[in-house]
Amino acid sequence: MKGSEGRDSPPFVRRPRTALHYFTLVEMLVVTAVLMVLASLALPAFHQSAELARAVVCQSNLKGMAYGYGLYLEDNAEQLVNSAKPYITDTKSWPLPEENIPGLNWFHTRWCNGDVNVRKRPDYASALVGYMGDARSFICPVFQRIAENTSEDHFYLQYKNLIKNYDPWYNYSANAYLGSDYKQQVADKKLSKDTWDQLKDPLFLRLRQVDDPAEVFSFAEESAKVDLTYNLSGLNDPCMIPGDLEMVLGWLKLPTVNWDFRRIEPGPTGVGPFWDVIAGFHFAQPDDPMGGWGHCAFLDGHVARHTRLETFSVCWPMRY
Asked: How far apart are CA 205 and CA 78, in angstroms?
């Protein structure tokens, strides 16, 4: 048979049908086992990378806060912000709840009360917040992921059912020893006259009164968990305080520390439990959820990570 161009067309050849090949059960099990091994090797690395990425975001948040704080100090004659109200303009229990409960102070639940989120309610925001535009958020993305576990603090456990709009919006706490006028504690009889007389410089109201700004944090991640061996309270307000001034003087006089503030640690081998401690959820192990580290933004503008054992050493403004 000739084609259209006059050439002979090749004859049609039927190829023999080959037998279909299927995986055997053993082969399937082997392939599945190999894939599971590869996944088990890859997942930890992926988790580690994701955790590192979230830690970088957290560090960036605090870097923006440190930068904003520096600008604020320049514009305000180095007047330190009152640590009791770094985000919100006052310390009163507003906006008032519908329930009129004696003793209830909404100051201790603002960190998870979406009704006072200053990003959404700028009319509540303090002057300092206006300088912190470079901070993407006031809450760590790692903490935001675990915030459904909430705080183990006694204030939160007592009043959590009264929060109408549960929305954790900050976990960076201000250094409670900065911007605080301890004369008010004397007036309120919370601080004895003997304690007042022993303090070298009890008014940390201006930056120049801090011995080394590179060693004292302005904001830090506070632990929401309670481990009674190390801390008595969890995240419950905007400031982190290891202990009141009576406790501080007792710690500094212990002969075992020889006035070395860097050795004043919470825990069974230290000075006992602090009130508040630095969070430990970054890269913490499942069996030790507070054993990792948290970020701190320092008064000189840098950000570094520290463990709960270092809480007092990076919080106390005096260097001995």
From this structure: 8
Say whether pTM exceeds 0.70: yes
229 Cβ partners below 8 Å, 6+ apart?
266, 267, 268, 273
CA distance 142 to 170: 12
- In angstroms and rounded to an integer, the radius of gyration of the C-alpha atoms of the chain is 29
Kindly give the confidence (pLDDT) of every residue in the chain, 320 residues in length, as a single tens digit, with 9 standing for 90 and above. 444 555 565 555 555 555 556 667 666 777 777 777 766 665 555 556 777 788 999 999 999 999 999 999 999 999 999 898 899 987 665 555 556 666 677 788 889 989 889 999 898 899 999 999 888 899 999 998 888 767 899 988 988 888 888 999 999 999 999 987 555 555 555 556 666 565 544 568 889 988 899 999 999 999 999 999 999 999 999 999 999 877 887 887 776 545 566 678 999 988 899 999 999 999 888 889 899 999 999 999 999 999 999 999 999 887 76
Spatial separation of the C-alpha atoms in residues 225 and 42, rounded to whole Å: 30
Structure tokens belonging to residue 216: 């004292």
Terminal-residue alpha carbon distance, the chain: 108
- Give the Cα separation of 320 and 310 in Å (integer): 16
Q: How far does CA 23 lie from the centroid of its chain?
A: 52
Q: Are 119 and 35 in contact (CB under 8 A)?
A: no
Strands 172-175 and 217-221: antiparallel
Q: In what order do the strands lie in the sheet with 217-221?
A: 239-240, 172-175, 217-221, 294-298, 303-306
Quick one: 279 exposed, middle or buried, by C-beta within 10 A (0-12, 13-18, 19+)?
buried
Pairing of strands 239-240, 172-175: parallel
**Helix or strand or coil: residue 193?**
helix
Residue 155 C-beta-side C-alpha neighbours within 13 Å: 17
Rounded Cα–Cα distance for residues 266 and 278 (Å)? 11
Structure tokens at 177: 């020893």
